[in-house]
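Sample pair:
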Amino acid sequence: MKSILTLAATAALVATQSTALSCMPPDVAQTFQWASEAEESYAVLLGKFSFDAPPQQPVSNDAQPQEVVASFTGQGLAENGFAPTTPTTVTLRTSCAGPWCGGFPNPDSEMLAFVALTDDGYLLTMGPCGGSTFGVDAAPIVEACMRGEVCTADPAQH
């Protein structure tokens, strides 16, 4: 299994103006598998992103992605689980599918995030269907996946 070193962005579903956006519920184990098999490098971060949220844009068919720079403090996923990491800068970017756009997390709330390592630094993309950020309760699942144990979001299998 490819080692996960940086977080990855999830792809947004494409929808037309005349159809509703249909999303599958995000699954942290599936996102882990996707990130570990991707050609890009990813990190899994557990902690807080501090930033000033931009104003919410109105819903329209020409909705545009938004971007802010955040300061991350917390832990990063290592071979043996989550470990403290130095504070780092992460660009937070929403992506859109027609009038539907991802949203920014609440500033300073704790979360687990899959972040891409790009030539410009760390990038966390939040699409309209989610899948790149999860609650902190997902951390044990990701740690099990990293150790090569049962990798499922189904609590009955842990």
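Residues 5-18 have pLDDT under 50 and may be disordered.
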